[in-house]
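Per-record layout

source: Aeribacillus pallidus
name: Iron transporter
length: 553
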Amino acid sequence: MNKHKNSHQENKEHQVEGTSHPSTFSSKPIYKRWTNKRYGGILLVVSLFTAVFMAVPLIYVVIRSFFAGKDRWLKLLDDRIPELLWNTLSLTVCVTFVAIVIGVTLAWLVHRTDLPGRNIWSWMLALPLVIPPYVGAVAYLIFLGPRGWMYDLWNKTALFSGDFPFNMYTFWGAFFVLTMFTYPYVYIIVSAALRRMNRNYEEVARSQGMNMWEVFWKVNLPLLRPAIGAGGILVALYVVSDFGAIAMLRYMTFTSAIYYQMGSYDNLSATVLSVILIALTLIILWIEGRMRRKGEYVQSATGAINRPEPISLGKWKPIALGFSTLVFLVAVVLPIIVLIYWSVIGYQEGAFDHKFWVYVFNSFKVSGLAALVSMLLALPIIYLKSRYPSIVSEVIEKFSYSGYALPGVIVALGIIFVFNNTPLYNTVILLVIAFVIRFLPQAMQAQEASLSLLSPRIDEAAQSLGYPPWKVMFTVILPSILPGILAGGALVFVSSMKELPATLLLRPPGFDTMAIRIWVEASEALYHLAAPPALLIIFVSIIPLRYMLQMRK
C-alpha cells in the first residue's frame, strides 16, 4: 500500500495539420488558444454564459447581505446564529457519524462476508436513496407521530402505561429520519471501493494470524478511508442543505430559518443567514479537499484484481442478517407500507382526481424542461474541459458547480433577487432556472464519465476534415455518448421532481407540483392526499438508481 502522489508530465506528440492533442494546449497563451476558431470560440461563449448564469444568483445573495446593516448583523449574531449553528452542526455531525457506521457495516457484510442473499442485499440496501427524506418524515409522522399508528396502539393497549415515549418533533426525530435515508451515500461508495480491493492484503493479514475483526480494522478500514470520507461528506452536505424533513419535523436549522425569514418578508436577514450557511458549506468542501489529498491510495499489487473469498460469519451470521433486515425494514418496507395504506384510502376517497393529475403533469413538465436544458448546457462545458483543458475551462467548471452544494432555499433567494421586477418573475421559467442551477452538475458528471471513455483521436480526425469544434461535438461526440447524456438527464429529472424549497419559493401562484402537495397536505395531516404523490415520486426515483449503482462498479 503506497501513498498515491500525482505527478504531471507534459506529453509531447507531433501535431497533424489542422489538429492538436489536448496535451499541447497548455503551451499556448490563453488568448491565442481561444481566439483560434478550431479551439471552440462558440463553445467557449456558451460555456462562459452558462457558468456566469449559474454563479450570479449566489454571488448576488452575498452582495445583498452587505446591505443588511450592522444592527441586523449584530442582532442575528447575538440571538439567532449561535443557536442555528449549534442545531445545524450537532445534527450534521451525529447523522454523518451514524450514517458512516451503518453504511460501512452493511457494505462490508454484503461484499466481504458470507451473508445469506448477498446479491439481493447489495441493491435492496441502496433503495432508501430513492425515498426523499421529507417523504420519509411524512411516513414516520404517520407511524410514530402524535395521533399516529403507534400512538393509538399505545393508548389502546392495557400493557402500556404513561405517555407515549416517542416524539418525532425533536432533534432525535430529525436525526433518525435523516440517518435512515442518507446512509446509502456511504453504502454505495464504500461498496464500490470494496469491489475493487485486492484480496492479497487480506490473505497476508490472515497468514499473520489476524482474525476477522482484526483484518477489518487493520486492513480494510485504512484502505476504505477515502471512500468513507467521500460518502461522509455527501451526507454532511445533504444534512446541512436539507429543508423538507427538517421543516416537516419542526426542527430549526439554517435552511428552515432562511425560509421562514423570507416568509416574513425579511429578505435581508435571510441573506445574512445564507452567507453563514454558504461559509459552513465551503468549510465542509474544504475538509473534503484536504481529506482527498491526504487519503489517496493505490494498490501496489500488479495484474488483475483478485476478489477476496467471503469471510465466514460463523455464530455472528444471525446477528448480521438481523441487522441488515432491520435497517431494510425501517428504511424501506415500513415507509412504503404506510404510504401504500394511505394511498389506498386516498383512492377510495377520490384523491386520484383531475387535480392530482395536474400536479403530476406540472412536476413532469418543469422537471423535463430542466433535464433537457441541463443536458444541452452540460455538454459544451464537459467537452471543453476534456478536449481543451486550461485555466479557463477549469474556472468555467467550478462556476457551474456553484449551485450544487448549496441548499435550494439559497438558490431560490438569489433568483428572487436577480429576477424580481422582471417579466420572468412568478413564471415557470424561474423554476426551471433554479432546477438547472441546482442539478446541472449531475448531468455534467454523467457526461464526463461517458466522454472519458472516448478517444480524443476521434475529434482530431473530424477536425482534420474541416469540422469546427461545435459541429464535432454535436455530430460526432453527442451520438457516441448519448447513453451517458440520457442518464444524466434522468438524474436531473428525478432530483428536480423531488426538490421542495426552491419550488415552494419560486412557483407561480396556483402552480402546484407533487412535492408541493406532499408538503401542504402532510402539514394539515391529510395523509390520504399526501401519500399518493409521495409514492409516485418514489417509484419514479427508482429509474436512475440502476445507473448510479452501475456507475459505482
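summary: The two ends are 21 Å apart (CA to CA). Residues 354-387 form the longest helix (34 residues).
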